[in-house]
Design a protein that fits this description.
355 residues, alpha/beta, Rossmann fold, 15 strands
């Protein structure tokens, strides 16, 4: 359970100011406060102390408040940071807020503003952190690199948010390269993402739509208990992608959130209903794809310029500059009507997706 008192880290090289902030927060809000005179030791303290708010001066020996902000975001993108400065000008305020600060306070500090900001931001962060607990992500692909192409940016965002990530790959991609090489590439990508990897060995281009595919996915779902699943779309030329989609629709029937991603072999019928900004995570996505050297040398669709251009195109339907599109099959409120779930009475024998 969360302790009652909000936990606050204060960084200021002026002892009088740091003591004042500590005293106000301890007396008015009964906060648990830790004080540092410089950014040295900040990362270790945050990881051990797990604060709800960071309060820092914008200028200090050995670093700046913006440096502290970046370090805080590396640990937890949602951790609120309040920046203080004796230079109470619009220019300083704009610099701090553009840098991502949650609040800007001018010195001499108004104790009421300080207390209000810490109380509001700390309480909001705790609600956010509580909502993240119990979340688990499973990304399912037919071949090595499939999930990284489809939702590499989204998975990077999940990783930064602290969500446990599992990648399930149903084949080792022997038809598209050397299986041992692709296995090592998958391990490198999972390691970069901080994900758990399940790498199966079904026959590339011949993945069955029923068992053992359904059974494998059900086993992983039972073990990791995902709250969110990302998987191939049904609207895809590659027979393995369609088979994995259909199998996953059976095996993940009790998962709260299920969405389908786009692959390079997706058809024009791919019809996304959600557009997730991956701004801030495009470089990580490119690094994930870069792990698959055996493919980047021969697959034009893995060229960084095309990857970014595709994400830029989808941003026209969402927010931000780069977006990954999803067909939502199911969300927490129940079934969402989706073309991905419509019954298809025809027998699809298209084999154009062979690789």
């Amino acid at each position: 359970m969360e302790p009652t008192a909000l936990r606050v880290v204060v960084l200021d090289d002026e002892p009088d100011v740091a003591q004042y902030v500590q005293l106000i927060l301890e007396m008015r809000l009964e906060c648990d406060v830790r004080v540092l005179p410089s950014p040295q030791g900040f990362t270790e303290l945050v990881r051990d102390f797990v604060p709800d708010v960071v309060v820092t001066d914008i200028e200090m020996p050995g670093g700046t408040g913006l440096d502290v902000l970046l370090r805080a975001r590396e640990i937890d993108r949602d951790l609120p940071v309040i920046i203080m400065t004796a230079h109470g000008t619009a220019e300083y305020a704009i610099t701090a807020l553009r840098g991502g600060a949650d609040e800007f306070l001018a010195k001499p500090l108004d104790s009421r503003e300080l207390v209000a900001a810490v109380s509001r931001l700390g309480s909001s962060y705790r609600r956010t952190r509580e909502s993240r607990r119990g979340r688990s992500v499973l990304a399912i692909g037919a071949h090595p690199d499939d999930v990284e192409i489809g939702v590499g940016g989204i998975l990077a965002a999940h990783a930064e948010a602290g969500d446990p990530i599992t990648v399930l790959t149903l084949s080792r991609g022997a038809r598209g390269g050397v299986a041992d090489d692709r296995q090592q590439e998958s391990l490198a990508s999972a390691d970069l993402l901080g994900a758990r990897l399940f790498l199966e060995d079904l026959t590339d281009t011949e993945i069955p739509v029923s068992d053992p595919t359904v059974g494998i996915i059900e086993r992983v779902v039972a073990e990791v208990r995902p709250t969110t699943v990302y998987v191939h779309s049904r609207h895809d030329r590659h027979q393995d992608h369609r088979a994995v989609h259909d199998a996953a629709m059976v095996a993940t029937r009790r998962v709260q959130h299920v969405a389908c991603y786009q692959s390079p072999s997706a058809t024009i019928e791919f019809c996304p209903t959600r557009f997730v900004s991956i701004d801030g995570f495009t470089q990580t996505k490119l690094e994930l794809l870069g792990c698959f050297a055996s493919q980047t040398e021969v697959r034009d669709y893995l060229e960084p310029e095309l990857v970014l251009a595709t994400a830029r195109y989808w941003s026209r339907f969402g927010t931000g500059r780069h977006v990954e599109p999803l067909e939502v099959v199911r969300d927490a409120s129940g079934i969402t009507p989706s073309s991905a779930e419509r019954a298809d009475a025809s027998t699809d024998t298209d084999r154009q997706g062979r690789r």
